[in-house]
Design brief:
Layout lengths: L5 E2 L9 H9 L19 H18 L5 E6 L2 H13 L4 E6 L2 H12 L7 E7 L22 E4 L2 E2 L4 E2 L10 E4 L16 E5 L10 E6 L16 H6 L9 H16 L2 H21 L4 E2 L11 E6 L5 H10 L2 E2 L10 E4 L6 H18 L1
Parallel strand pairs: 1-13, 3-4, 3-5, 5-8, 8-9
Antiparallel strand pairs: 2-10, 6-7, 9-10, 11-12, 12-14
This protein binds pyridoxal-5'-phosphate.
């Protein structure tokens, strides 16, 4: 096999090798058409079939009912920070919970739409005081009555904070699942809208998934651009304009791969084992440290610091030499971060753990 290394990049993140091999094998000639999949019309029968297959596989994996539309859009999760208020605020109050960089960005973006008269944006609570290492307890939340929606980010990719329980609120729940979608089973029916940029746990950058309850698609603002309008996209099979066809294709291959792995339940067990192995290695040492309240430690993104930050550079050099890539932490948090999405194997995490032990023995 080729020299594919263990890649702990937070995003765009590693892809399953089997998926890349399949894409490679059919790169030049897809479905005996004599051209690649990226060179055909998105409206051709062959491509439409691919699109439908990807959607039905995702529906199977996440158990998504017909009450929900599944949209394959562009613009990343960040464009959804605008699309959500434009589609859902509807003159009411939107509640935002702030638990890290991403939910903070979503809140700030929504806030801008107050000036358009779209509605009000209310900050329910913020984990800022804890440096986003903890989730504010629900007793402190300032929820609005009859909010248009409640927005939160179940897994904060940068701070490594994850909320495993869906908040008990009355408003439709909107969740940024960019870095945790398909990592563990969820009940989609508890949500009004789920969105995710593909480049963490699904496929390449350029594709954004939106799973939205159909009755929530009826209230878009007149300000909402056509390509950002959920109902408009739904009625046009997410093809109001040219979609990100190759990213859509690769994501479809990842869905097939996930089904072959035994689905989300099976991958969740492996994810838990990976996270346990890594947190155990951190907790069993005085050299490595993770700051997050253990109750909320992410199973996907594991930030950690070394006892002596002057060793950060050496750690990164030596880990790279050992074939363990992209462990540098986000600049907001510093230190290291291992993103251990679905496509990272348990063996690769064990390789990282052994490296960490050896590094501590040498430098600790
Ligand atoms: C990466 C990320 C984003 C930003 O995604 P883009 O596709 O770059 O816009 C938003 N939210 C979360 C939780 C992320 O991990």
């Amino acid at each position: 096999m080729t020299n594919r290394l263990a890649n702990f990049c937070a995003g765009p993140a590693t892809m399953p090798t089997a998926v890349l091999q399949k894409a490679q094998a059919e790169m030049l000639d897809w479905h005996n058409l004599g051209v690649s999949v990226m060179e055909i019309s998105h409206r051709s029968a062959d491509y439409m079939e691919l699109a439908q297959q990807a959607e039905s596989n995702l529906r199977k994996l996440m158990n998504i009912s017909d009450d929900y539309a599944v949209l394959f859009l562009q613009g990343g999760a960040a464009l959804q920070f605008s699309a959500i208020p434009l589609n859902l605020m509807n003159g009411g109050v939107a509640d935002y919970l702030e638990t890290g960089t991403w939910s903070q960005k979503a809140y700030k973006e929504a806030k801008r739409y107050e000036t358009l008269g779209l509605g009000k944006v209310n900050l329910v609570a913020s984990g800022d005081a804890s440096g986003f290492t903890d989730i504010p307890s629900m007793e402190q939340w300032q929820l609005s009555d009859n909010a248009s929606y409640f927005h939160y980010c179940p897994n904060e990719t940068i701070h490594g904070v994850q909320m495993f329980d869906v908040p008990k609120v009355n408003a439709p729940i909107v969740a940024d699942m960019s870095s945790c979608i398909l990592s563990a089973p969820i009940d989609v029916n508890q949500f009004g809208l789920i969105y995710a940029g593909a480049q963490k746990n699904i496929g390449p950058a350029g594709l954004t998934l939106v799973i939205v309850r159909k009755d929530l698609m009826e209230q878009a603002s007149a300000w909402c651009p056509a390509v950002m309008n959920y109902k408009n996209q739904f009625e046009n099979d997410s093809m109001l304009n040219t979609p990100s066809t190759y990213a859509w294709y690769l994501s479809g291959l990842v869905f097939e791969w996930l089904i072959e792995q035994g689905g989300v339940e099976a991958i969740a067990k492996i994810n838990q084992a990976k996270a346990n192995a890594l947190y155990q290695a951190i907790d069993n040492s005085d050299f490595y440290h993770n700051q997050v309240n253990p109750q909320y430690r992410s199973i996907m993104n594991v930030p950690f610091t070394l006892a002596n930050s002057e060793l950060d550079k050496v750690f990164l050099e030596k880990s790279k030499e050992a074939g363990l890539l992209n462990l540098k932490g986000h600049r907001v948090v510093g230190g290291m971060r291992a993103s251990i999405y679905n496509a990272v194997t348990l063996a690769q995490v064990e390789q990282l753990v052994s490296f960490m032990k050896e590094f501590e023995r040498q430098y600790g």
